[in-house]
């Protein structure tokens, strides 16, 4: 059914493996199930009406928080480093130092520009960030069935949460692991909490104490659905002990021609340019 609906934009390397995994998730039932998802370009849309949608960092970086010159500097950074992030000819190891440089430089500029906590709300309102179609429904299905949803993002936690507040809601089953901003008593940005999370270190090494306890609390949930758009997202479940079944759904939005074979190899199901959460929702409806 999904194949018909998605019109050739759904790719599965091994139908048998995927069928078995789905059957395991259904048999395991709702009490054994958890979801781990990336945010930017996975829960949020990569583009809308031919225009690229912004990321959590982008929401701030292109907002009135920064003067024109700083916005230009940040845009130039993004142009240079995003090309590296999605470069099909480089290995993840080769990309990592560049990603650290990108995130650290952008964060330093934010701190130097004295970003205010109160600016986040306006920046989100004025941005073109959009959650994927039926993302809200996905949050609801999971929450109604008390299925934990970990949003593991290399974006900015405070911005991501504001997007959820404005575009959907922040439900009790949701836990966010991301880069949390640190503000002084006047609400001015002075740094970021803990270790930097960038797009290629989203594994157990990036988990904070609170994430450790989160996994400890749900350690009886051995079945996972992992949602992501980057090869780095494949490691988001590395911190989960005793995994029984992990079904990986990859959303491919960029350099499709070059990256598709690699994505088909690494992910159980690949969805090309999918602006919806439909495939995940069909699966979740079957499990719950
Ligand atoms: O939620 P997710 O882990 O996908 O968020 C990380 C994304 O944020 C990266 O894919 C990267 O392209 C983007 N980014 C950005 N501007 C920065 C740093 C990262 O748009 N300064």
UniProtKB/TrEMBL annotation:
Catalysed reactions listed for this entry: a ribonucleoside 5'-phosphate + H2O = a ribonucleoside + phosphate
Any idea which UniProt keywords this protein has?
Answer: Cytoplasm, Hydrolase, Magnesium, Metal-binding, Nucleotide metabolism, Nucleotide-binding
Q: Does the keyword Oxidoreductase apply?
A: no
Phosphoprotein listed as a keyword: no
Give the EC number(s) listed in the UniProt record. Answer: 3.1.3.5
Predominantly, its location class is cytoplasm
- Upper lineage: Eukaryota, Metazoa, Chordata, Tunicata, Ascidiacea
Concerning InterPro entries, the annotation shows: HAD-like_sf, HAD_sf, Pyrimidine_nucleotidase_eu
- The protein here is known as 5'-nucleotidase
Q: Native species of this protein?
A: Ciona intestinalis
Q: Name one GO biological process term.
A: nucleotide metabolic process
Recorded GO terms, molecular function?
5'-nucleotidase activity; magnesium ion binding; nucleotide binding
Cellular component terms (Gene Ontology) = cytoplasm
């Amino acid at each position: 059914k999904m194949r018909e609906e998605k019109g050739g934009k759904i790719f599965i390397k091994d139908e048998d493996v995927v069928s078995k995994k789905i059957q395991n998730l259904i048999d395991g039932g709702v009490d054994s199930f958890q979801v781990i998802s990336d945010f930017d370009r996975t829960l949020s849309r990569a583009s809308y009406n031919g225009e690229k949608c912004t990321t959590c960092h982008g929401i701030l970086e292109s907002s009135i928080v920064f003067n024109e010159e700083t916005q230009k500097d940040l845009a130039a950074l993004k142009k240079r480093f995003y090309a590296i992030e999605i470069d099909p000819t480089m290995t993840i190891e080769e990309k990592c130092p560049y990603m650290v440089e990108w995130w650290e430089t952008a964060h330093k500029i934010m701190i130097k520009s004295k970003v205010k906590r109160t600016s986040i709300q306006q920046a989100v309102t004025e941005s073109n960030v959009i959650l994927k179609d039926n993302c809200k429904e996905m949050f609801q299905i999971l929450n109604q069935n008390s299925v934990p949803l970990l949003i593991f993002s290399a974006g900015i936690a405070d911005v991501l949460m504001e997007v959820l507040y404005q575009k959907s809601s922040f439900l009790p089953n949701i836990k966010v692991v991301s880069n949390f901003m640190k503000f002084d008593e006047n609400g001015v940005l002075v740094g970021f909490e803990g270790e930097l999370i960038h797009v290629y270190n989203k594994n157990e090494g990036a988990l904070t104490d609170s994430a450790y306890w989160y996994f400890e609390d749900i350690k009886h949930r051995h079945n996972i659905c992992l949602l992501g758009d980057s090869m780095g997202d494949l490691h988001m479940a590395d911190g989960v002990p005793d995994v029984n079944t992990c079904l990986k759904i990859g959303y491919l939005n960029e350099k499709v021609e070059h990256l598709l074979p690699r994505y088909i190899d690494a992910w159980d199901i690949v969805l090309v340019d999918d602006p919806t959460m439909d495939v995940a929702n069909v699966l979740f409806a079957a499990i719950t």
